[in-house]
Amino acid sequence: MDASKKELADSGNLKIEWAKNHMPVLEQIRKEFEAEKPLKGRRIAMALHVEAKTAVLVETLAAGGANVAITGCNPLSTQDDVAYALDCKENISCCAKYDCTNAEYYEAIDKVLDMEPDITIDDGADLIFKLHKERRDLLPKIIGGCEETTTGIHRLMAMQKEGALEMAVLAVNDAQTKFMFDNRYGTGQSAWDGIMRTTNLLVAGKTVVIGGYGWCGRGIAMRAAGLGAEVVVTEINPVRALEARMDGYRVMPMANAAAIGDIFVTTTGNCDVISTEHFLKMKSGAILANAGHFNVEIDLEGLKKMSTDIKTVRKNIKEYTINKNQTESREQNSNKSGNKHEIKINVLADGRLVNLAAGDGHPAEVMDMSFANQALSVKYIAQNKLSHGVHKVPAEIDEWVASLKLKSMSIEIDRLTDKQRCYTDDWEAGT
Fold first, then answer.
1. Residue 426 in this model has a pLDDT that exceeds 60
2. Could you give the CA distance from residue 138 to residue 135 in angstroms, rounded to a whole number?
């Protein structure tokens, strides 16, 4: 190994070691896997964000006896030093790289699938999509898979509804010890970490517009308020909109919020949450970031077409300049007169996941629970025959992860007495 590669491997291993030291639940599972080898002979293909916490999961699966091949699930979320360090480890191959093209991204997924896996782990369902569209010959060999994120679950449910899903998948994202903590506290902290380290600007006193009030949106809103921002939420779901208002935030359509926002963060998992009509209403200098899985929430193609100038003004920040008068004239096919009115819009990380493309992702303590769910779900798939379709993570896995996490935090909780258990189970007891 030459000096530069050794330096890369050393850097990656230091990051992995740091994450491992803050993931006690997954560490306990790794020790159990090492002793029991529940995944012996299994081939696991993964498409996840290749960074330090993911590497700890990969090492855990390999410790359980599996051969693991992994690539990225986002062109900008791979950390090259971690990827190289993983690729140097026994029974692990990694073909992810930072800032790959779309063609390279899908080529890497193909390389991972070339191992002819028994089990898959996905974040966004691109690997499963590839299997069903182009690598169908591999489907009969697969006994099941896991899906990490909300967007991926939505895609899989759509496949299932159409009768197109030809494998069993555990919805790891929907485990309580995943979405209630990873999506809310993980995204809440890591999205702002990515935004603040990228812009080096103050959040306090600004108006932050959050597109979507699911678990990720809740977390980002909570942290924005804690940083001193005025928070505005846009929603399509009346119940979530009501919840956001009761939580103390202003609620309005994006068409109205566009004119008052200083920072915009999308978290819906849908496309065109911020579109051309909204760009024209924005303040010059507005900052746009995305915390949803795919880079479709901000209409970047529309923004490019509207812009008279595009330049990189800081690492992970592109400034788009719109001449409002010219744009309005083109759209209305009229010759408006007036002074030149430029709007400068700053887009972070090309609209990709800001917490990973411009930061280090979720804190290790949160991913400890998410990846503990992944490891135990893979073991469950290996030991049980599941029918095709999307399945819930067994409740006992969820509760076991929560119990281990509490224990690692030196927290004890009450238990029901025999009398309380009988009272809970009885329907005759009244006043």
1. yes
2. 6
Query: Do the annotations mark residue 228 as ligand-binding?
Result: no
Identify the DSSP state of 430: -
Does residue 17 have a known ligand-binding role? no
Given pLDDT bands bounded at 50, 70 and 90, which one contains residue 330?
A: low
- Contact between 50 and 83 under an 8 Å Cβ cutoff? The reply is yes
The reply, when asked if residue 114 is annotated as ligand binding, is no
Distance, CA of 405 to CA of 295 (rounded, Å): 33
Task: Tell me the residue ranges of DSSP E strands in 172-252.
Answer: 207-211, 230-234, 250-251
Give the bridge partners for 208, in sequence order.
Answer: 231, 263
Query: What is the pLDDT, as a whole number, of residue 337?
Result: 39
In this prediction, residue 428 has a pLDDT band, given cuts at 50, 70 and 90, of: confident
- 339: annotated binding-site residue? no
150 is in an annotated binding site: yes
Is 124 annotated as belonging to a binding site?
Answer: no
Q: What is the dihedral of CA 62, 173, 349, 18, to 10 degrees?
A: -40
Domains contained in the chain, CATH given? 3-178+362-408 (3.40.50.1480), 185-357 (3.40.50.720)
Cβ proximity of 284 and 344 under 8 Å: yes
What was the pLDDT predicted at 343? 96
State yes or no: 335 annotated in a binding site.
no
380 is in an annotated binding site: no
Residue 147 counted as an annotated binding residue: no
Dist. CA 66–CA 39, nearest whole Å: 5
Structure token digits, residue 191: 């999205």
Nearest Cα to Cα of residue 357 among 74, 167, 22 = 74
Residue 87 burial (C-beta neighbours within 10 Å; 0-12, 13-18, 19+)? middle
For residue range 249-303, list pLDDT tens digits in order.
999 999 999 999 999 999 999 999 999 999 999 999 999 999 998 899 999 999 9
Alpha-carbon dihedral 270, 273, 276, 279, rounded to 10 degrees: -150
Q: At what angle are helices 80-87 and 52-63 packed, to 10 degrees?
A: 10
Is 212 labeled as ligand-binding? Answer: yes
Type of residue found at 167: M
